Amino acid sequence: MEGLLLGLGFIGVALAILTPFVKSGTGLTLISLAVYFRFIGIETWLPVILFTAGLLLIVFEIFVPEFGLAGIVGMILLISGLYLTIGDIGQTVRDLSLSVVITSGVVFYLIKNGYSLANVNKLILQTNLQDISSKTDTDNTKQSITVGLEGVAMTPLRPSGKVAFGDDPHAYDVLSTDGHISKDSAVVVDKVQGTKITVRQNR
Questions:
Q1: In this structure, are residues 104 and 110 in contact, taking their beta carbons and an 8 Å threshold?
Q2: CA atoms of 164 and 166, how far apart (whole Å)
Q3: What biological process terms from GO does the record include (predicted)?
Q4: Are 1 and 38 in contact (CB under 8 A)?
Q5: Which residues neighbour 83 within 8 Å (Cβ) at sequence distance 6 or greater?
Q6: For residue 97, what pLDDT is reported?
């Protein structure tokens, strides 16, 4: 029961990050975790604070994967918060493992159905891409995108982002098959399916 509630909390985070249902995902997370900590019972707010800080750092790591340390510290704080709440390392590992398995299944399903960080990236990259957007909105001539075409990442790909190909000033929405790719890295088109363009790092 506890592991299921914890899993629902993590699923809410995944929904908020990978889908347009940000409010619903956030609400599911808040409700599930509130019920979880109430069900377990807490004597002080320290475990909740540690758990929340850890979860926020892990989410931060998802958006800024190059930072690295945030994810490690976040995981330590999250586990510490759970352990201080439960008081049993075995049950802590069991609950966390169950929730991770459930969440992984949901994330795999969402990614398989085309969901990604694109909806969040649009908000994060909106300011940085204003100049690019103003140019591309008036440019009606777009380059034909084919497999093997080389380009340059105009934004970090996490795994979605913007890429320019050749002399074409248009910034194309793409999805990286290599996970995170840094800005200004050389990429090559791996697959084109309709309007969906996937790229990999050009090594």
A1: no
A2: 7
A3: proteolysis
A4: no
A5: 89, 92
A6: 84
